[in-house]
Amino acid sequence: MSTAATELKAARGRPGARGQIIPPQSVEHGYDQTWYPICLSSELATGQILSVDFMNGRVIAIRDTNGQPHVLSAFCRHLGADLVGGELIDDTVRCPYHHWRYDMQGQCVATAIDKPPAAAKLFRFPVHEGMGLVWAFNGTEPLFDPPAWEVPESQMAVVAAQEYVENNDHFVPFSNSCDIQHLVVVHGMKLDINPESVTITPHTLEYLQSQDAPGMGHLDMMIHLHGSNTLLLWSKTMGRMMYMMSCGRPLPGNRTQLYQAAATPLRDAPGDAQMAAAMNNQSLAFGRQLMNEDRPTFSRISFRQDILTHSDRMLAKYFDWVRAFPRTSIACDYIAT
Fold this sequence. Notes:
By secondary structure, the chain is an alpha+beta fold. It contains 6 helices and 23 strands.
C-alpha cells in the first residue's frame, strides 16, 4: 500500500476530541471515484467548448460532430493555455496560444510547426450522457455503471435542472438520505426508524423506506445512492411511477454544484404530456423544498461524525460506506489551475 493510501486509511478512522473527521475531498486525500455531473445536456451544443470547474481545477466539455460529449483537462500540454479560448476544427481542439491540436481522446495530433509530441496528451475522463446531464467518471476507467433509472429514458418525460452551490463536500448533504432523525424532525416525514432490506456494495447503498412526506402523501420510496454523490429515488404516486435524482459535482474549495432531475413514464393518452410535465415539476419542487430547509444549517456546519444514538443506525452505515469509498487524485495535476 502506498504512503498516501496508508495515510488516508489512518485519517478515515482517526477520532478527534469532537468525533471522527471524514477526510475532505482534496488532492492530498483524493476525490471519490464516481460519476460526476459536468453540465446539463442542453448546455452543450455541437461545436462548443464549455469551461467547467471540477474538483481542484477546470475541464472542458465538448460535443463532437456526431453528437457525442467528451470531457478533457482544460490546459494545453505545451505552456498551459486554457483550451476554452480555442477552436474546434474537424473534431479537434486547437489551442489559442500556439495552435497545437488535440483529438477527442486528448492526444495532440498536430502543431503549427513541429511534429506533435507523443507525450502531449490531455486527461480524458470516461463520459456518459443521461438523465439530462453529461457525466464524467473520476478515473481512467469506470469502476461501475453510470446512474440510470429502471425504465429507458426514451420512454419517459425527463427534466433536469442546475441548483445551487453547496459549501460542503458532497457527502455532507447526501448523508441526509440515511439520516432518519433529520428527515423526521426537520422535513416532517413519518418513516421507519430502522429500515430493513438494506443492500450495500462498494459503490451503491439501497433500502426501501415507507414514509409519509409533506406535499407528497404516503410513499413506499426506494432510496438508492449510486456513488457517494448521486441519490436516486423512485416510488408510485397517483398510480404512476415517479423517478427523482439529485447529484453533485465537486468544486475547488470543497464546494459542490448540485443538480436535480425528475422523470415519469409517458402514456399514450390525451393530455398525458402535460400531466407528466406537471408531476416532474412537482418532484423538482419537492427536492428544492428539502434543499431550502437544509441550507441555513449547511451554511454554518462544522461536519464530523460524533456521538450517534439508536435511531442513527442507518446513518452509521452510510458513514462507514463513505469512508471506504475509493478515491484518486490521478487527474488532479492535469486540471489544476
